[in-house]
Design brief:
The protein has about 350 residues and is an all-alpha fold. The protein is built from 14 helices and two strands. The N and C termini lie far apart (about 50 Å).
Length: about 350
């Protein structure tokens, strides 16, 4: 069990970067960007083909981010300059990227198990620190010695990377450009009234969001040991699940809190899926169904609880008012109706 949860934390850290990109487009810009299903694979395919052809993993990963940035920029241009509906613009780009990704890879799958990747570089550099023995020793002390992880490198390094991106995004969204980006998503008409160019803000936001998604895709490909043309299917739902779960559990009152919540949501999502797959009647092919149910639950449950809380608050308030009137308010009277309408 511990080994499965540990792997969930590892993959959750990598997918959290993708979720931050989805958060930027869906929450900040209020743009239903379907491009991410294609740009995620674009990042994986660019990184994989470059690594196979002898480029350094760092260069391959950087180029994957650039490819995602370009894909997001094109979606932005389709919407702002071509006046295409936001959802349709994303779908068109997603469809186009399917063929582009096949062209990039030259096949539907590229194996990386025998290649040097960022993941193997991290593991090799980490091996000399001796931290694995120390951390595994602590697990042995607490009684988890039977399921020790091979290395802590990926978990810790990806946690640091995700937190750096989260801090950078939080700082960026507080700058003048970041505030304009947030304002564009909140009230585009108001921003236009101040002569600000909302089109450029949308293009910038979509470009950055898809760059993060492609970066995550490149890391996932190197983590899993392959790039596959179908690995992006349903990725938008995973990103939304991470955002919704994070906001429901940790709140989103400030930008810093909301972006941290997205990282937490990505980890919790992976853990829930891992635990769900341990149920006997569920299979690996049910992951998409589990994801859909998680999103439905994350959307519906908070609304139900909020409604119950509001009912309880109104009942308490009504009792307080009745006590002030000496209990003279009858349920069918005019006074009762007027007081209840003011609650």
């Amino acid at each position: 069990m511990f080994s499965a949860l540990f792997n969930s934390f590892e993959s959750g850290m990598i997918y959290a970067i993708m979720a931050l990109g989805v958060y930027l487009t869906f929450r900040i810009l209020d743009f239903p960007d379907m491009t991410v299903e294609g740009s995620f694979v674009t990042g994986a395919s660019v990184a994989a083909i470059m690594i196979v052809n002898g480029f350094s993993p760092a260069m391959a990963t950087f180029c994957a981010m650039v490819a995602g940035f370009i894909a997001g920029t094109i979606t932005g241009f389709l919407h702002t300059k071509g006046k295409i509906n936001p959802l349709l613009a994303g779908i068109l780009m997603m469809i186009a990227l399917y063929s582009i990704n096949l062209r990039i890879m030259g096949a539907s799958n590229i194996p990386l198990l025998s290649q040097t990747t960022i993941i193997t570089n991290i593991q090799d550099a980490w091996a000399g620190t001796g931290l694995d023995n120390m951390l595994n020793g602590l697990l042995t002390i607490v009684g988890l010695g039977d399921s020790l992880p091979k290395t802590w490198a990926i978990l810790i390094v990806m946690l640091i990377v995700a937190l750096i991106i989260q801090a950078g995004m939080s700082a960026f969204l507080k700058t003048e450009i970041g505030l304009a980006l947030r304002a564009t998503g909140d009230n585009e008409a108001m921003v236009k009234s101040f002569s600000a160019h909302t089109g450029n803000m949308k293009i910038l936001g979509l470009a950055i969001g898809n760059a993060l998604v492609a970066f995550s895709g490149s890391l996932v490909a190197q983590y899993n040991g392959f790039s596959d043309i179908g690995m992006g299917i349903g990725i938008i739902v995973i990103g939304l699940a991470s955002v919704i779960i994070g906001e429901a559990l940790f709140g989103s009152k400030t930008i810093a809190r909301a972006t941290l919540a997205v990282i937490g949501g990505a980890i919790i999502y992976r853990i829930v899926v891992t635990l769900a797959l341990r149920v006997e009647f569920l299979e690996t092919g049910d992951v998409k169904l589990i994801t859909a149910l998680i999103v439905v639950g994350a959307l519906v449950i908070p609304k139900i609880t909020d409604k119950q809380k509001e009912k309880s608050r109104k009942k308490r308030r009504l009792k307080e008012i009745q006590m002030r009137h000496g209990g003279t308010l009858s349920k069918g009277g005019e006074g009762y109706a007027s007081v209840k309408s003011d609650l």
